[in-house]
């Protein structure tokens, strides 16, 4: 199984969500790009970390 740890930092707050932009590893292309997370979950977090697992 292939996994990737993707890091994000806050970009902008919208009405009900927070937009995060991916911080790609040096020399690598972004995997996700932009991620929207609902404000009730994101709270005041300035950064996020997401693990992606590929299934066969």
* Helix/strand structural class: mainly beta
Fraction of residues in β-strands: over 45%
Order of helices and strands: EEEHE
| Rg measurement, Å | 12 Å
Morphology call: globular
Q: Which strand order do you get reading across the main beta sheet?
A: 3-2-1-4
| Terminal Cα span | 7 Å
**How many β-strand stretches?**
4
Summarize the structure.
The protein has 56 residues and is mainly β.
Features:
single chain; 56 residues; mainly beta; 55% strand; 1 helix
Written overview of the protein:
The protein has one domain (2-54). It has 1 helix and 4 strands, in the order βββαβ. It has one helix spanning 39-42, and strands at residues 2-13, 17-22, 34-38, 47-54. The chain has a 4-stranded antiparallel beta sheet. The chain starts with a strand and ends with a strand. The model has no long low-confidence stretch (mean pLDDT 94).
Secondary structure elements and pairings:
Layout: E1 2-13, E2 17-22, E3 34-38, H1 39-42, E4 47-54
Antiparallel strand pairs: 1-2, 1-4, 2-3
